[in-house]
Amino acid sequence: MKSVTNNSKKSTRQVILHAIKLSPQAKIEDLATAADVSPVTVRHHLNSLQAEGMLEVESVRRKVGRPYYVYTLSQQGQELFPQRYFSLTNRLLDELKSRLPENVVNDIFSGVVKSLVADHKNEFETLNFEERLNYVIGLLADEGFLARWEHTAEGYQIIEYSCPYISVGQRHSEICTFDKELMLTVLDVPIQQHSCMLNGDDCCHFSVDI
Questions:
Q1: Is residue 32 within 8 Å of residue 41, measured between CB atoms?
Q2: Cα 158 to Cα 204: distance, rounded to the nearest angstrom
Q3: pLDDT tens digits along 159-194
Q4: Residue 2 above 60 pLDDT?
Q5: What predicted TM-score, i.e. pTM, was given to this entire model?
Q6: Diameter over CA atoms, the chain
C-alpha cells in the first residue's frame, strides 16, 4: 500500500482534516492510522491546525489513567471543505429577480445594509471620522472582506483586497453594492469607486469625499 507520507505536508494535513470531518471526536491514534503516519507527526500537524483556528480540542477524562484529547473541526475548518452556498445563493437570487421588479430587488439589497447598520448604530454614531473608518473596516472584515484605509495627498482612500461575494457578483452584480452602501451609511459622506475586482481589477478602490 502506498503511504501518504510520500505526499507533501499539505497532503498529509488534508488527510488529517478529512479524517476529523468523517470522525468527529477523533483521537490522535485514529488520525495516525488514517494518515499512515506516526502519532508524533500527527501531533505536529494538529498543533499547527489548532494555532490556525481550524480545530477544536476537548480533553476527555478516563476513570483510570491520564486524560486524552479528541479533535473536531471548528467553523473555520468546516469552511475548508466544498460548500454549496454560492450555488444556492445564485438560485435564490435568480428566483427573486424573476418574480420581483428591479427596483424592489434593489430595495431589498439596500434593506439588508440598513438592517446590518441598525444593529450597530449606537456603536459608531458618536465616533469621529477616522474612528468611523476603523469601524467600517471592522464591519467589512466581519462580513468577509479584507480591506484597509489610508490617508494620502489625494485624501482618504479605502482599498479592498478580497471580496466574499465575488463569485455571486459575477452573476448578480447588484450584490456588489453591499460594501459601498455600508461605507456610505457608516461614514455619512460621499464615496466614489475607481476600480472593482468584478471588472478584473486587483482591488476595489474607493475615495472618500470629505
A1: yes
A2: 8
A3: 998 888 888 888 898 888 899 999 999 999 999 999
A4: no
A5: 0.61
A6: 69
Taken in order of first residue, the domains within the chain and their CATH numbers are: 4-78 (1.10.10.10), 100-208 (3.90.1520.10)
Residue 144 has pLDDT above 70, yes or no: yes
Dist. CA 179–CA 173, nearest whole Å: 12
Mean of per-residue pLDDT scores for the chain: 87
According to the 3-state scheme, what is the secondary structure of the chain? CCCHHHCCHHHHHHHHHHHHHHCCCEEHHHHHHHHCCCHHHHHHHHHHHHHCCCEEEEEECCCCCCCEEEEEECHHHHCCCCCCHHHHHHHHHHHHHHHCCHHHHHHHHHHHHHHHHHHHHHHHCCCCHHHHHHHHHHHHHHCCCEEEEEEECCEEEEEEEECCCHHHHCCCHHHHHHHHHHHHHHHCCCEEEEECHHHCCCCEEEEECC
